[in-house]
Design goal:
This protein has 383 residues and is α+β, with helices and mostly antiparallel strands. It folds into 2 domains: 128 residues, no CATH class; 141 residues, Histidine kinase-like ATPase, C-terminal domain (Heat Shock Protein 90), CATH 3.30.565. 55% of the residues lie in helices and 19% in strands. The longest helix has 72 residues.
């Protein structure tokens, strides 16, 4: 799966799962709150029946002729009686708390005793909340949320795959198109370049020198596009042969290759190339890296502008005085097919290839740019 597909799939899953989780969490909270109140109301109703039973026993105690009055007790509940001024008289509650003082985590009910007897006017009955049904409710909701999360994660993954399927199909068609295009371009490009070289070697004269220069520039442009498309198409299957490359010689060689293109724009070339800069890299990767930087610096430069190339043992810098890149486009400029300026030709793959090469070799890539002032690209291989 390509990185763009992975990003789309991850974003879809995040939005899908977060929204689904939020919806189910809200529904579960509403269900839990309602069920919890129902359980507590059921326990309160039971407590009211027990309070009525206790009140009937107090009434029987009042009507009895026994000299010894024994306060009725219940092992399941705690109770107390209060006078008309709501002062504590007696009970199984181990405190002299008033009617307004209630313990936490308990259920209570207050019953008025009528008729008034034995000095008791109010009966307070309390009972600890039975938390076992509530804990079972919480456990069931948790298991439901877990099962729903697993189910919707699997469902979301397959929906996400269906979501990115058109993208995959489009990318495959594009890759096939690139592959077919590069195959068709190879033969005419090679033929043109070969014949240009023969004409330059044996038949060049003042009449055809300008025409040959234009043909050479166009042919080299086509050749570079062909190489880039081939590299882009075969990058993941390409077997790299890492060797010691003299970057000083390679940069000078590629500058000579692009001389005709630079002269067509009347660019001033400034070079500061340190000798014998050795880098461990595949030669084709090095060519794509340098070629795309130089090509972009020429293509997007201004007429009579400046192209500056700096090479040291640690870094390669390519600086131009071209049209520049907007700050909001800098974050996305290295994406495949991204073009910050559509007035110039190109497929929008040059900086993407540069970023891919830097990623493969863990090079630091930094792009600085200002509109109408130019662009500066830094590639650092020694940190």
């Amino acid at each position: 799966m390509l990185s763009s597909e992975k990003r789309s799939l991850v974003r879809f899953l995040v939005i899908y799962l977060v929204s689904t989780l939020a919806l189910f969490s809200l529904a579960s909270w509403v269900f839990y709150t309602s069920s919890k109140h129902h359980l507590l109301d059921t326990q309160r109703e039971v407590l009211k029946y027990e309070a009525e039973d206790l009140k009937s026993k107090l009434r029987m105690l009042h009507q009895s002729n026994n000299e010894i009055l024994k306060y009725p007790k219940n092992a399941k509940i705690k109770s107390a009686i209060y006078d008309l001024d709501k002062r504590y008289i007696f009970g199984t509650i181990q405190s002299t708390q008033g009617l307004e003082e209630k313990e936490k985590n308990t259920l209570y009910t207050i019953t008025k005793i009528e008729p008034y007897y034995l000095g008791a006017a109010y009966l307070l009955v309390t009972k600890d909340i039975n938390r076992i049904p509530i804990q079972n409710l919480q456990k069931n909701i948790f298991l439901f949320m877990l099962a729903a999360g697993i189910f919707f994660s699997i469902l979301g993954y397959y929906l996400g795959r269906l979501f990115v399927a058109p993208m995959r199909e489009s990318l495959e068609k594009m890759n096939h198109f690139i592959q077919d295009t590069t195959h068709e371009l190879n033969t005419p490009i090679s033929t043109i370049l070969t014949n240009v070289e023969l004409i330059e070697a044996f038949g060049e004269n003042e009449k055809n020198v300008n025409e040959l220069r234009r043909i050479e520039i166009a042919s080299k442009t086509l050749s570079r596009i062909y190489d880039d498309l081939t590299y882009l198409n075969l990058n993941h299957q390409y077997h790299r042969r890492i060797i010691a490359i003299n970057m000083s010689d390679l940069v000078q060689e590629r500058l000579a290759y692009f001389t005709s293109m630079a002269e067509a724009k009347r660019l001033k070339l400034m070079m500061n190339i340190a000798p014998k800069v050795i880098v461990q890299i595949d030669k084709n990767d090095a060519l794509r890296l340098v070629d795309n930087l130089l090509s972009n610096a020429i293509k997007y430069n201004k007429h009579h502008g400046t192209l500056e190339v700096i090479l040291t043992q640690k870094i390669l810098i390519v600086r131009d005085t071209g049209i520049g890149i907007k700050s909001e486009d800098l974050k996305q400029i290295m994406q495949r097919f991204k073009r910050a300026n559509k007035s110039e030709g190109g497929f929008g793959i040059g900086l993407h290839i540069v970023s891919q090469v830097c990623e493969n070799y863990a090079y630091d890539l930094e792009i600085k740019s200002k509109i109408n002032e130019g662009t500066e690209v830094h590639i650092r291989w020694v940190k």
